[in-house]
Amino acid sequence: MSAAGILLAPPPGMEHRLHRHAGSGIVEVVLLSPLVGFMALVIFGAGQIVFDRIATDGAAHAAARAASLELTMGEAQSAAAAAVEASLGDRCTAYSVHLSGDLAPGGTVTATLTCTVDVESPVWPPQELISTALSPVDAWRGAP
Q1: How many domains are there within the chain?
Q2: Which residues of the chain have a pLDDT value below 70?
Q3: CATH number, domain with residue 55
Q4: In terms of C-beta density within 10 A (0-12 exposed, 13-18 middle, 19 or more buried), how is residue 29 classed?
Q5: Residues 56/88, Cβ–Cβ less than 8 Å
């Protein structure tokens, strides 16, 4: 027998232990693969929700800023809706913008954006994201 054969042979008495564990790696892979796939879907969905939350916060800020530049609440509502549409595009399946505050010089406009996002993951249901932003009205502009 060669030296290589001696090094590769199991120690005496270990043959039955090695045979008993044969194929256990396949069983572990079969059992853990769905868990790994599920975890990947959860992580992907959570990442998409965080990304959509950031986009919703930015759109709320854009809506508040656009509204603060207008002279009447009707014009402010139209400008806020246009700003949200430009910021989010088709990211939201449904959204609404609510404005409050005072458009008088030195006032503050608050925009509350409610956005329903459809997470592209079978693990997550549609999420309703609510973002609020404030924007000051220029103190030196003309009164409405």
Answers
A1: 1
A2: 1-23, 142-144
A3: 3.30.1300
A4: exposed
A5: yes
